[in-house]
Amino acid sequence: MVIQFNSGDDNSRREGNAKSPSAVSSEPIAAEPKRIVVVEDERVTQTVISVILKGAGYSVVAARDAAEALSVIRAEIPHLITLDIDLSRDASGPTWDGYHVVEWLHHRFPEDPVPFIVISGGEPAAIQAKAQALGAFGYLPKPVDKQKLLGLVKQAIGEAPAPPPPTGPTAPPPLPPRSTRPPAK
Questions:
Q1: Nearest Cα to Cα of residue 57 among 150, 122, 123, 148
Q2: 166 to each of 58, 92, 138, 174, how far by Cα in Å?
Q3: pTM for the complete prediction?
């Protein structure tokens, strides 16, 4: 299940950080990968999400609790955040849950919010409602499905997702071979 709440263009914040034309050299420069912060206290889930995103070419920074997440976000504003709701109570910093992190984001970036995707193993209906009310781009249940995660991430950061190849009974039948004979009269 993938729940997408908001569609928006996140390029305005990045454009403000662009170099002036006089500071840009004439040599082609490779585009920097989009930076994603993965806030997840379960190491296995954090590793799975990070590996999926890194494999797709994103720059990933992981945080295991709210304190690490806030520190990472303060250091450099990410393009996107994936956010677990139930963060560890054994955290090194404040015992905030993911909702507190979202409230901090709204306070810190009121004019240009950082998009976030809620990823949680909790009660889906309650989490979806709360995440949508807080302005989440979308919601994914645990365990995370790779294709659904990548599709939602691409939409959230303004990249069009690649359509999945059709498979199974919904796949169109192959085209018949072309006939080189003239049509029958």
A1: 150
A2: 26, 46, 24, 12
A3: 0.70
